[in-house]
Every structure is written in structure tokens, then in C-alpha cells.
Amino acid sequence: MGHLESISNPRDLRRLDDDQLAELATEIRDFLVATCARTGGHLGPNLGVVELTLAIHRVFDSPRDRIVLDTGHQSYVHKLLTGRMAGFEHLRQEGGVSGYPSRAESEHDLVENSHASTALSYADGLAKAYTIRGEERHVVAVIGDGALTGGMAWEALNNIAIAQGSRLVIVVNDNERSYTPTIGGLATALTNLRTSPRYEHFLDQIKRRLNAVPGVGPAAYDALHAMKKGMKDALAPQGLFEDLGLKYVGPVDGHDRAALEHALTHAKKFNGPVIVHALTTKGFGYDAAMAHEADQFHAPRPFDIETGEEHPTGRIWTDVFAEEMVRIGERRKDVVAITAAMMHPVGLEDFQRRFPERTFDVGIAEQHAVTCAAGLAMGGLHPVFAVYATFLNRAFDQVLMDVALHRCPVTFVLDRSGVTGDDGASHNGMWDLSILQVVPGLKLAAPRDAARLRELLEEAVAVSDGPTALRFPKGPPPADLEAVGRAGGADVMVRNGKRDVLVVAVGSMVETAVDVAERLVAQGIGVTVVDPRWVKPVDPAIVELARDHRLVVSIEDNGIVGGCGSVLLQTLNDEGVTTPVRLHGIPQEFLGHAKRGVILSRIGLDGQSLARAIVEDVAAAAEGGPLSDAQAAQR
Predict the structure, then answer these.
(1) Of 252, 254, 271, 273, residue with least CA distance to 263
(2) Where are the beta strands (DSSP E) in 37-77?
(3) List of residues 6+ apart from 576 with CB closer than 8 A
(4) How confident is the model at residue 1 (pLDDT cuts 50, 70, 90)?
(5) pLDDT by residue (tens digit) across 399-443?
């Protein structure tokens, strides 16, 4: 039996000598490579923090001392050291361990939110709480240099700096990357630079890349508005942090466990907040990951261990968007692209290569991205901000007040909308249809297939009097689904038999609705299925169709509260349509991790479950009774 199998608790690490710990680090890397080769997962980030995680767990006493991992995708090593090796058999699958920290799995996990740049705020609050309660407990916050491009991290640092009694150790995991190389750098006064020969070359890079401006103290906020290239360069010297009032240790070789333990032990003795700066390499120890130019195996699909080549898959929605963006860019010189540190995941790499001067990576700064887009629009351009649907939540105020209020022509492309599955609750893009419904003047599209994605993206960037949004899910699109007719701006997908049931299906749920229609027709129920294409505002033609049917059913891959179905129901009520309406969507709850198909079946959004429910509703309507639960409305 190797060392890894004998670890059930972090305290087990303290009985191992240096040689055994080195062997354990190798075992962990081999295990992670073998696991992710089979299941996929966040391999690169975890290979880069093996020694760092070992050192943290040897110096601090979890769970008494709290460890907060920013974003949390680098938690695999932490999970292995806290007794969860067996769960990796089904990593990120139903019944296996989550890809992020999970309170349900272990007392060693506290923060589950996987949105970046939040760890320092959690840690600030925790450390203050322990101080007030008189508890001698440490808080360790691990944050990457990529996450430090987020303004929230600097707001937290500004407050941590004056919390002199907090037992808070901030570990900066500096690998020069988030998904891809970190963008942004702090142009601020860099005084008191270290002159140690060990870091001479490193500091020379800083001098060449950073601009100097006077002052730091209050300039912590100024730094948010002074991003320049190379966050890593801003972190190496202690000047910035010490001028803020934060003690600084480092830089330390992030793959030298003994040096890390020495630095962390030193930091632990301070009677206040301290920063330990660790220099790590994403993908460390696996040549294929380190050589992977795009993102050093940030989150590969299943792959061949020997070659590092990912197993082939079909085209996904993002690929279609990527191609169409380049086509639009070639025709429209005013179209520009924005990403928040996700150039590769959201499909803007090809656009960037073709139009580098028209592509902007703002770092993990969604709020800035949206308001910057408003400025670009005011300057006569049409920005396209491509972002995971769940991350747009972070910039709602900017969408509402900075873009929509000024009727700026900005297009938001929301990748990974609806149920994403593998990455759990905080990655499901199930909120956008509800959140964006309240934004005046915003038009919202949901393509059902690749052809409609191209079509609707073209229509979106043609809008010049306000914002537009376009959403699509994770994974491959279905084969193109051709309409059988048109009703206003909506596509009629099925028209079969009497006007018993009108199914209004949103985006990716259209394919499911067509399947449902076939099942209903087999039961002798007449069905009309429509795809609104543009789901906001509600098409008047759909209102008239609803008036002529016995039952209206909405199906959407979004939270059921405040979504397209809710707005359709309200619109029909306003128009005096008395047809009963049934809403089908995602329950308003945080969903655990599992494959998308598994989750959709579990929550009743698969063809069989939907058909069964509609048959029951048709029977109830025929008998003059109410529909069966609170998700239905009888007016």
C-alpha cells in the first residue's frame, strides 16, 4: 500500500518524513492524472498545488483552522488529504466527490461558492468573528494571481489591512494563470523592492513591465482602475502589500514543500494578517499538461495519459459561436469582443487571433467588462461580451444601470446556460432568464440549434438601440430542427391535430418539446409547439395562439421563478387570455453535481416526464378541475 491510501486525516501527514512526503506528492500527481484521464476534471490547477496543500495541512490544524480556497477547483489535493480518495472513482458525477469544496462531503470544507475573487472576503469575516469570540483559530485563504484581477479581492485587502488582530494568512498561489495567462497588472508605486540575487531576474521583469504612480494606502482602490500587463509582476515585491499595512513573506518556491512549511510557520506567528507569496507552475509534474499551450490542462476532457491528447468529441455550442463571431467580425469592423479571463472557454480565441486589436481580456472582472462594454458602445462600437451565464450574475447592476439605462447596443453571449451539471450548484446557469427579464429594453434570444445560434447572433449585433442577450447550454447542439411554419417572429415546430395543447419551448428545450409532442400525439392529443426564438419581449403571436388552445405549457432550462414561463403567464393575464397555463422549469433550489441529462430527468425536464405531466393536465382540464400543483395557474 502506498502512502496515499493511508491518509484519512491531515494529521496523518505529520508522521511522514521528508522522503515519504516526496513520495506522497508523486503518488498524488499520478493518482490525479489517472483519475482525470478517465473522468475529466480540473487537472492542471491541482497538479500545481500539491506541495502547497501538503504544507498548509502540515502547518495548520484543519478543520479547527479554516482553509478557504478561492474558486475551489484546486481542491482535489485537499480532498485526498482529508480522506476522500474513494469518491474520486466518480469525480464530478452523481455519487462521487464534487469538483469543488462541499460541506456535505467533509467538515474540512467550508466555502462552496466557486465564483472567483471571493475567498479574501470570506476569510476576513471568519477571522474577525474568531477574534470577537476570543477563539485562537487561524484562517488560511488561498487565492490565485488570476483571482486577484477581480476588484472584490482588492476591496477585501483594503479591509483586511486594518484588521490588525486577525489571525489570517493569505497564500497567493501565483502561477501566472487563471484559465489562461493572467491579464492585468497593478500600475502603482513599487518601492522597497527586494534585491536578493535569488529574485533578481524576477524583479527585473517587474521593472520592465510596470508603470509607477505615487502613493499606495488609499491607492488600493486606484489600483482597481490601473490594470496593466502582468499581475504576477505586481505581486513579487512586498512594497504594495506592506504599504497597505500587510506583512509579506516571499516569494517562495511553491514546489519546495519544506520552504513553504518554513514560510507558513513564520506567517502563523504574526499577530495579524500576512501574505505568503508562492510561485507555482500549473500542471507541474505532468509534461503533457505543462506543454499544453492553451491552458496547461486547466479542465481537460478524458484523455490519453501517454500522449495527453483529449479523446475526440463532437462540435459544441461554443464552437459554433466562435466561428460565427469571426464571420461577423470580418463583415462588421465595429464589432469588438470582451472576455473576463476566459478567452479559450468562451470561444473567442479565433476572433482574438484574427482581430487582436478588437479583442479585450479584462481579467476576472465581470463588472468592469460590462461597463467597459457600455463605454465602447457609446464610442460607436458594438461590443460582444462572451461569458458563462452564471458569471453574468456578478454584473447585474452594470447590465441594468450602465448598459440598459443608456440603451447601449451591447450583446451578451451567455455560454453554459441552464443545467451544466458536472461543476455543481454555482456553475449552473439557471438564473439568467429570470434576472434579465427585469431589465427594461433588453431583448433576449435562445437558439434551439446551431443554425439558429448563427441566425440570432447576427440579429443581435444588428440591434442598435439597446442591449441584447443570447444564451446556449453546455455540450453539443442537436441536429438542426427545421420549422413547419411561422407565427409572428416565432417558429412553429409542430402542428398536429386539434388545438389541445400549445407548448412554448425555450432554446435547448425545443428538441425535448418535439419529443414530447410525438408522445402526446400518440395519446390522441393535438399539439402545437412553438420556439419563440426571441423570448423577451413576448411575441404577440404567441398570445393569440394561447387564446386558441385548451392548455398552454412552457418549458425552459431556467429557474421556474421569474423565468420565461412566469412572464408569459403574466402577459396572458394582462391580455385577458383565460387558457390554463402550466410552467415547467428548474426547481428554485441549488442543484448537486451530476451529468446534465441525469439532472434534467431528476427534475422532470425529460421527454417522458413532461409528456406524462401534460397528459394528466389535459385530463384535468377536460374534467373542469384545476391543474395539479403550484407550478400551474388556472385563470
Answers:
(1) 252
(2) 66-69
(3) none
(4) low
(5) 999 999 999 999 999 999 998 877 777 788 889 999 999 999 999
pLDDT of residue 20: 95
- CB atoms inside a 10 Å sphere around CB 256: 16
Concatenated DSSP letters of 81-100: TTT-GGGGGGTTSTTS--SS
Question: What is the value of pTM for the model shown?
Answer: 0.84
Active site residue 282: yes
- Alpha-carbon distance of 94 to 157, in angstroms, equals 37
Cross-strand partners of 633: 581
- CA-nearest of 632, 558, 555, 629 to 588 is 558
Share of the chain above pLDDT 90, in %: 65
Closest by Cα among 409, 479, 411 to 444: 411
Smallest CA-to-CA distance from 600 within 554, 562, 556 is with 556
| pLDDT-wise least confident of 15-19, 105-109, 172-176 | 172-176
Percent of the chain with pLDDT over 70: 87
Distance CA 176, CA 396 (A): 28
| Entry field: residues in the chain | 635
Contacts of 537 (CB under 8 A, 6+ apart): 443
- Average pLDDT estimate for 322-342: 96
What does the CA dihedral 324, 327, 328, 332 come to, rounded to 10 degrees? 170
* Closest C-alpha to 296, from 387, 386, 176, 147: 176
What burial letters (b/e) apply to 574-613, b meaning 16+ CB within 10 Å?
A: eeebebbbbbbbbeeeebebbbbeebbebbbbbbebbbeb
Rg of the chain (C-alpha set) = 26
> d(Cα 67, Cα 151) in Å, to the nearest integer?
22
| pLDDT exceeds 60 at position 31 | yes
Residue of 232, 394, 471, 582 with catalytic role? 394
Active site residue 366: yes
More confident residue, 429 or 218: 429
- The one catalytic residue in 176, 324, 366, 511 is 366
Of the residues 257, 282, 533, 582, only one is catalytic, namely 282
Query: DSSP letter string over 475-514?
Result: SPPPSP---SEEETTEEEEEEESSS-EEEEE-GGGHHHHH
Please tell me whether the peptide bond between 467 and the residue prior to it is cis, using omega within 30 degrees of 0.
no
User: What digits encode the pLDDT tens for the residues 131-154?
Assistant: 999 999 999 999 988 888 888 998
- What's the one-letter identity of residue 374? A
